[in-house]
Amino acid sequence: MKNKPNEAIRALRKIIGYTQAEFAAMIGVSKDAVVSWETGRNQVSDTYVRRIALATGVDGRMLKAGVSVPLSTAEDGHLYRAEDFEHHRQSEWGRTDEEAARRRLADCADTLELLLLAAVKPSGDKRHQQLPGVMDSFMQWCEAVREDFQLGQQIDAQLETRRQRAGMTQVYGVWRAMNRGNPEGLKANGYVEDPTKGAGESLRLELELVPEWAPGRSMKWPKPFKMKLATPAQG
After folding, report:
1. What pTM did the predictor assign?
2. Pick the residue with more confidence: 166 or 16?
3. How many other C-beta atoms lie within 10 A of the C-beta of residue 47?
4. Which is the CATH superfamily of the domain at 7-93?
5. pLDDT tens digit string along 102-126?
6. Backbone angles phi, psi at 5, to 5 degrees
7. pLDDT for 225
C-alpha cells in the first residue's frame, strides 16, 4: 500500500520558514529523508516525530497522522503558527543557542551520573560488569550524534580553542614514528632528524598540541586522553 504524502511535515516546515535541507539539519537526517516523508515515499518514524516535536513544539500525533494542518502543543491545541515556533524555542530551550546548551548540559550530566552509578551499584548479580557496556553505548551514541548532525567541524573548532604548548621527552624511535605519520606537524614543532642519534636516545621538544575527539575520555587539560599535533599555521 502506497504511503500518503505527509502534508503536516511540509506545512510545518513552510510555517517555520525552513528549506528541506535546513529542516533535515535541525533534526539530524538527510534532505532525502525529508523529501521522502513529504512525498509519501517513506513514513516518518516515531524517533523523528519526537525530534521534530521537541524542536518545534508541534503536536507529534498530528505529524504522525500526516494531517494537512499541524497543531500546537499549547493547551488550546490551536493551529500551529510561526509565533509558536519562536515561543517554544525561547521557553523550552533558551533565548540563545548557547543558553539552551548550557541549560541542558547540567541536566545531561545528572542523567549520565545516574546511569553510570546504576551500572555499578552492588546487587548480588554482578551488575558492576555492566559499566563497560554502558560506556560503549554512550560512546557509540556520541559518534552517531556527531555524524547525524554533522558536528565534526564545530567540535574540531572547539577543540582548537584548547590548543596548548607542552614540553615532551621521547626517544628518537618514537619521534621518528611520529614524523612518518605527520612530518609537517612535527617539523613545525621543532623536530630535526639527526641520523647520528640512536633509537633509544632521548630528545625533548616543545610541542603545540590539540586534544583529539575521544568520547568517554577527558579532552581537557592538563591530562587529555588523546592529543594530536596542531596543524601548522598557513603563511
Report:
1. 0.74
2. 16
3. 11
4. lambda repressor-like DNA-binding domains (1.10.260.40)
5. 888 988 999 999 999 988 876 666 6
6. -55, 140
7. 47
Bridge partner residues of 206 (DSSP): 167
Evaluate if residue 94 carries a pLDDT over 90.
no
Instruction: Report how far residue 54's alpha carbon sits from residue 27's, in angstroms, rounded to the nearest whole number.
Output: 10
Q: For the residues of the chain, what is the DSSP string, one character each?
A: -PPPP-HHHHHHHHHHT--HHHHHHHHT--HHHHHHHHHTSSPPPHHHHHHHHHHH-B-HHHHHHT-SS-BBSSTT-PBP-HHHHHHHIIIII-SSHHHHHHHHHHHHHHHHHHHHHHTTS--SS-GGGGHHHHHHHHHHHHHHHHHHTT-HHHHHHHHHTT-EEEEEEEEHHHHHHHHHH-HHHHHHTT----TTS-TT-EEEEEEEEEEPP-TTS--SSSS-S-EEEPPPPP-
Q: To the nearest whole number, what is the mean pLDDT of the chain?
A: 87
